[in-house]
Amino acid sequence: MFKLLFLLATLTLSSNASVQDFCVADLKGPESPAGYSCKSVTNVTVDDFVFSGLSKAGNTANIIKAAVTPAFAAQFPGLNGLGLSAGRLDLAPGGVIPFHTHPGASEILLVVQGQITAGFVSSANTVYLKTLKKGDLMVYPQGLLHFQLSDAGYTSVAYIFFSSSNPGLQITDFALFANDLPTKLVGATTFLDEATIKKLKGVLGGTN
């Protein structure tokens, strides 16, 4: 019995010794698909685990009348490696977060002010659409195209939460019209006419 208890105690101590409580991001180093390397524990402070940036409204004076304030590992180093992150959406009346996808995470949206029409499209091209009010939650499965549009006559606010410390982002409109992809090729793959494509490229900064 004593030998068994000693063995269990040894295994427990050995297991605990191999557990790493956290891996605060070393933002001075490069980021990899697995995240940032760990800052030395001796340099970690409580401020690495606190982020106050979501208390401030984002600037909605832009083409989409909306702002996204991220709280990812790059802004909130204590999240590194923990598989979660957050953000804030501010949408002026008529503001929109265009169709986009997060390749690395699922997302939950919580409306805290105003009214937001939100939806996503499944891989079978089924649309899931809902007008959300204060207190409503909506989830977007990982990798699926989704959007948010303010329906209120005043600024709508929502908080977003992700299942990754770096969920990634690709906005469809920017992917098509904010680069140097040839206009003819964009037309062939989207069925849009050349004039429309050039107009969108002009608005979003694309060339060619």
UniProtKB/TrEMBL annotation:
Keyword Disulfide bond assigned: yes
Residues binding Mn(2+): H100, H102, E107, H146
Signal sequence region: 1-17
InterPro entries recorded: Cupin_1, Germin, Germin_Mn-BS, RmlC-like_jellyroll, RmlC_Cupin_sf
Main location: secreted
Disulfide bonds: C23-C38
Pfam families to which the protein is assigned, alphabetical: Cupin_1
CDD domains with a match to the protein in the record: cupin_OxOx (cd02241)
Gene Ontology MF: a single term: manganese ion binding
Tagged with keyword Metal-binding: yes
Residue sites binding oxalate per the record: H102, E107
Keywords in alphabetical order: Apoplast, Disulfide bond, Manganese, Metal-binding, Secreted, Signal
Top-level division of the source organism's lineage: Eukaryota
Domain Cupin type-1, first and last residues per copy: 52-198
GO cellular component terms, A-Z: apoplast
Localization in the cell: Secreted, Extracellular space, Apoplast
Family: Belongs to the germin family.
Protein name (record): Germin-like protein
Organism the protein comes from: Anisodus acutangulus
